[in-house]
Write a structure and sequence with these properties.
Helix content: 25-40%
Order of helices and strands: HHHEHHEEEEEEEEHE
Strand content: 5-15%
Radius of gyration: 25 Å
Length: 271
């Protein structure tokens, strides 16, 4: 019978399931015994760079270290949650063309957007099994992916310690006869002046590609947790699930629970 009264958020339920209940599953009968999925499960955690350390311990099929003492059977609600998390392995991530992890930054010159475009090729490779591992690891560790960071300043591109000038110029590819545009030196050494149409260029003072990936993973983690919440809602026997879910993009001033986001899940086949 379902208990009524205090509602519990999905994050709290995930932590309860993966810290207290699912470690009861597949208890090893002797030291050194390991389930078939143990090595690959921790390998995913290591490769994903979540824990930052190596834990030499066997895992059960739920991706957690089993306890060695008999603590009773796994709670049925925890098994339901575990199956929902396992289902994340069948999902893939689609990035909308207008997606930006830095909607809270001005980026008037577009340098941040350019850095994000350079990182996209890596972000689209995020596989469903990594999404599953991320949710499990965060439930065990008890913290969400970090996403905080300030917009970096800009520094002018220089040559020989002096501001550099650039300009666009049309040239012809002699092998094809096609005309193309290229960027050339915009400074005239004879007149010691910039050529007509010359401009200066700027670079970001700090790299933002790493933070872009952190914010991307933060959004995917939130979407995954929401997906699990929707999957288990109405199916738990002893817990009343609350409507509280993590915000997909907490850095956006107008972000609200359930609001639209440019990072979305699409169902895909398991590889």
């Amino acid at each position: 019978m379902r208990q009524t009264g205090k509602q519990t958020g999905i994050i709290e339920l995930l932590e309860w399931a993966y810290r207290q209940e699912l470690p009861k599953a597949e208890r090893a009968v002797a030291s050194g015994t390991q389930t078939a999925s143990a090595a690959s499960s921790w390998g995913m955690v290591y490769d994903f760079g979540i824990l930052g350390t190596v834990i030499d311990a066997p895992l059960n099929a739920h991706g957690v270290v089993p306890i060695w003492m008999d603590a009773g059977d796994v709670h049925p609600d925890a098994l339901i949650i575990g199956r929902a998390v396992d289902g994340l392995a069948g999902l893939s991530v689609e990035i909308a063309p207008d997606w930006s992890p830095f909607a809270d930054w001005a980026d008037a010159d577009g340098l941040v957007a350019e850095a994000v475009r350079r990182r996209r090729w890596r972000l689209v490779k995020l596989a469903g099994r990594e999404i599953r591992t991320m949710v499990i690891a965060r439930a065990v560790l008890g913290r969400a992916p970090d996403w905080r960071g300030a917009e970096p300043g800009r520094t002018m591109v220089t040559r020989g310690g002096k501001p550099a000038w650039f300009m666009k110029q049309m040239r012809i590819d002699h092998s094809s006869g096609m005309e193309f545009e290229c960027e050339v030196d915009g400074y005239n050494p004879r007149s010691r002046r910039p050529r007509p149409g010359a401009y200066r260029k700027y670079l970001l003072c700090d790299d933002v590609e790493g933070l872009a990936e952190e914010r991307f993973r933060r959004s995917v983690w939130a979407l995954a947790v929401r997906h699990v919440a929707a999957s288990v809602a109405g199916h738990l026997a002893s817990h009343e699930l609350s409507a509280e879910v993590p915000t997909v993009a907490p850095w956006e001033a107008d972000a609200v629970a359930g609001g639209a986001t440019s990072v979305k899940f699409t169902l895909g086949l398991k590889s």
